[in-house]
Amino acid sequence: MTAGPVVVLVLSHRDPPLVHRLVSRLTAGSNTAVVVHHDPTGPALQLPRSDAVLQMPSPQHSEWGRMTLALSVVNGLRFAITHIPELSWVLVISGQDYPTRSMTDIENDLAGSTKDAYLRYFRVDAQAGNDVHPWQQLTRRRYLHKIRLPGTHRSVPFPRRHPFNGHPANAKNLSLFVGDQWVNLGSAAVHHVLDQQQRLPQVERYFGRCSIPDEGFLPTLLLNNAEHLRVEDDRRRYIPWTKGQRHPPLLSIDDVDKAAAGTDLFARKVDSERTPDVLDRFDRLAGGSGLA
Predict the structure, then answer these.
(1) What letters, b where the CB count within 10 A reaches 16 and e where it falls short, cover 222-242?
(2) How many CB atoms lie within 10 A of CB 128?
(3) How far, in Å, CA of 177 to CA of 144, rounded?
């Protein structure tokens, strides 16, 4: 039986020429549909009419570091499963990501997968005894011991009563997980996240008063009560982080072959004006599909 379509959920806010080129590459596969959430505060985006491309109506401004961004991802998942209920996967990317290989290769890769989700994640306990990465300590302070001041990105120390394991008042047996918002979810995982959002409204309320909730909200929904899911700790993204920087740099031409040689599905980040050579190289490696 043929697997349902792969849906790529694109969250964009800038660079319409890049989004056009990205959508062209994504729809060059044989079994891929694209859902685009384009921030209304960015430059206007008019995509060609296509049965394979859905632009979310009434998009919301999604501000970095705020709950609006985290909710845009979850709302995009709900839109995708509502309009394409037979989907097999939803791959969440930004408008500055680009496929590392042809979409046909990516479709075949996912069709043969035994996993229900791929993302990078860590559990954050109330105490540091089981930590394996410095990020856990940073996020422990951010999510358990600080509160965001209303209307700002600033958070201040505050003895919060959180809903997760380790708080004396907690009776829900919930764990806090942190990870990427740029996730790869099979259909069972998509349904689980949406069910969890309804089942655990206290999680959404809590993250609404945190800084950078997008790194915790979706992983926490996905990974709690998830014994029935096979989740791989792998983001499937090529991202050449620079130590000490909050955002990854633009890709160089030297990154392209490295990204294409591995198992990653997408690489970030790119720009229509500043990395045209990178985009051209990815297109050539994919067999020319999507060349602008």
Answers:
(1) bbbbbeebebbeebbbbbbee
(2) 10
(3) 12
Smallest CA-to-CA distance from 115 within 88, 84, 81, 94 is with 88
Our measurement of the distance from residue 232's CA atom to the centroid of its chain's CA atoms, rounded to an integer in Å, reads 15
Tokens representing 139?
């996020």
Neighbours of 10 (CB within 10 A): 24
Predicted TM-score of the model (pTM): 0.94
Summarised one tens digit per residue, pLDDT across range 68-100 is 999 999 999 999 999 999 999 999 999 999 999
In degrees to the nearest 10, what's the CA dihedral of 10, 11, 14, 20? 10
d(C-alpha 114, C-alpha 231), whole Å: 10
- The tens digit of pLDDT for each residue in 11-28 reads 999 999 999 999 999 999
Beta pairing partners, 186: 89
- HEC profile of the chain: CCCCCEEEEEEECCCHHHHHHHHHHHCCCCCEEEEEEECCCCCCCCCCCCCCEEECCCCCCCCCCCHHHHHHHHHHHHHHHHHCCCCCEEEEEECCEEECCCHHHHHHHHHCCCCCEEECEEEECCCHHHCCCHHHHHHHHHHHCEEECCCCCCEEECCCCCCCCCCCCCCCCCCEEEECCCCEEEHHHHHHHHHHHHHCHHHHHHHCCCCCHHHCHHHHHHHCCCCCCCEEECCCEECCCCCCCCCCCCCCHHHHHHHHHCCCCEEECCCCCCCHHHHHHHHHHCCCCCCC
